[in-house]
Amino acid sequence: MKIIRLPHAMSRWSDRLRREGVTIGLVPTMGALHDGHRALIKAARLQCDALVVSIFVNPTQFSPNEDLSRYPRPIAKDRALCRGEGVDVCFEPDAGAMYPEGFQTIVTVPVVAQHWEGASRPHHFAGVATVVTKLFSIVRPHVTLFGQKDFQQAALIRRLIRDLNLGIDLIVPDTIREPDGLAMSSRNIYLTPFQRRAAPTFHQALLIGRTAVETGLRDSRSIEQRMRHVIGREPTMSVDYLAICDPETLEPLTRIERRAVILGAVRIGSVRLLDNMMVAVKPRR
To answer: Which residue is catalytic, options 37, 115, 142, 203?
Structure first.
């Protein structure tokens, strides 16, 4: 496995392989890799001839009140996981390489980013869109994979690829969960043992929402109230947002007619967890 740190060296590697007809895949990460990332890498390995995993803790997607320095960086462990999964290149630029002196370009996808995570973290998605655009320009992949856990992020990347005619295939595999339903996330390491035992309540609330839809409830507010009731039984957990949205536009729905996605974020102490669930109205027989 090669380790490449400089953008121009990464582009040279990709350009050579593309000229040879090699299909390149990219899994962008901020490191602290876990089994959810492992599943993405395994899925990507099936879609391409050569696989790049980027490991870059992107400073521009952190707001001023979020501790960038606290973000875990277990680079030796991350490399070992990538090596074990047959990754061809770990692309590990530093902030100076990605944002050199004088850098001033920002990429935004304003409509997709305006609600939910975008409202809670106003600077986040501009940072995501900008760094992903740069990674696409540097690595030049044919296919890229993003996890469904960050549903709004995946929707934003889909719109970015479409609007800028980037010609990259986006694949969004299902969320990988712990046995008790908690979505795998780098943030989970911050949970205390007591908080970790409480955390699956979030997933349980989403399951209640899905069951409500499957058994005939269509009113979004009523479904949301049922989910909030479940979360309210866990005193350590508070709701940042719960929303039932159109899966493409992420606009809130007052009533579910066909398909929808339940988006949510909760806090347990200082830890903020994201999750979502697709729901669909069962056709009448």
So the answer is: 37
